[in-house]
Amino acid sequence: MITTLLYSMTGLLLFAMGLFTLFIHSHPLRKILAVNVMSTGVFLIMVATAYKPMPLGNIDPVPHAMVLTGIVVSVSVTALALLLACRVQETSNLDLLERKKQARIPEESRR
Amino acid sequence: MKTEKKSIRRIRNRGKRLDAWQLLLLFLLLCLTTVLGTIIWTMPENTSGLTDAVARLQEQSGVESPVTAVLLNFRGYDTLLEVMVLLLAVIGAWSLAKAPFSGQAADTGPVQMGVVRLLVPLMFLVAAYLVWQGSHLAGGAFQGGAILGAAGVLLLVTELLFLPAIPALPLRIGLVFGPLLFVVIALFCLCLTGHLLGYPEQAAGGLILLIETACAISIGLTLASLFAGGHPEDDHPQSVNPTEHSDKEEWP
User: Fold this and answer.
1) Which of A24, A61, B184, B191 could form a disulfide with B67 if both were Cys (CB 3.0 to 4.6 A apart)?
2) Which residues in chain B have Cβ-Cβ distances shorter than 8 Å to A8?
3) Domains of chain A, residue spans
4) Which CATH number among 1.10.287.3510, 3.40.50.1170, 3.30.565.10, 3.40.50.150 corresponds to the domain A2-110?
5) Could you tell me if A96 lies within 8 Å of chain B, comparing CB atoms?
6) What ipTM was reported for this prediction?
7) How confident is the model over A47-100, as pLDDT tens digits?
8) What residues have CB less than 8 Å from B129, skipping those under 6 apart?
9) Which of residues 72-91 of B touch A (CB under 8 A)?
């Protein structure tokens, strides 16, 4: 009982911390990390509530199956999000855009 | 000099101190956390959830492990969609970038090569064992696939020379193999029993093991190619604009 509650509360704390970071920081990398921390908290809560100290010692298999697939999906979603963030950085970096503009100006003046 | 230092400190602190909106947000978040915490605290702890329902139908599912039964039989549709999400993630990653291989041999130490030689076959073995074990104990396609993915990551960080030369076609076939087999078996069951993924009772165990093996291979390849961070070298989509390509090389 106490152990389950401890795990659940830790998960809730992780969720809240992640949500706060997600709101107040604007950098994509921080947002991706925040979402990851949030999802870890949710997984922790689900696994903790699935634990049932019953006479049989069984667990509730449905949340376990959800968390199992959820972990792999969250890894792949993180990878895709990181790639998108890299792409954003590549195409919206001010220095790069400035250099691009300077490279274009002599071309236009020639016309 | 002193005032300068003070102003610098003030500027530095400005970024760290929360303004009014952020404080309001913090307050709202604390309220939400308190509400959620109360819900978790007062949750009835002696309900069995869905354990009894799963245990009742366990014999019909064809496997002995309750988690695998839920994953691939009772909630098979859910798992099918999740495998599709993994495939979509790879498609997205491949359409965004090319895998950034350096193209030259990295100076890997003998210890690292030894670790790779020892660990990679062992990881394949453990993955196969986990998939096989999934029918009666903890284990299954996702765990086995994760181990396979880790083996791929180990090979990728060692920067072996044959990795960038892997052709795209076998990789594509491997990535699609698991989801495709899953869909084919689902449609086959639809024709046979009238329900999508409603396995015939005698063949359920074999079909689940078949799906798990195929999905483990595909999940491992998915995770490894997501770590590689893009499509392989010889994968040239027809629609790519040549000017865009040259642009990209100009701005690495």
Assistant:
1) A61
2) 40
3) 2-110
4) 1.10.287.3510
5) yes
6) 0.79
7) 988 877 655 556 788 888 889 889 999 999 999 999 999 888 888 877 777 776
8) B139
9) 75, 78-79, 82, 85-86, 89-90
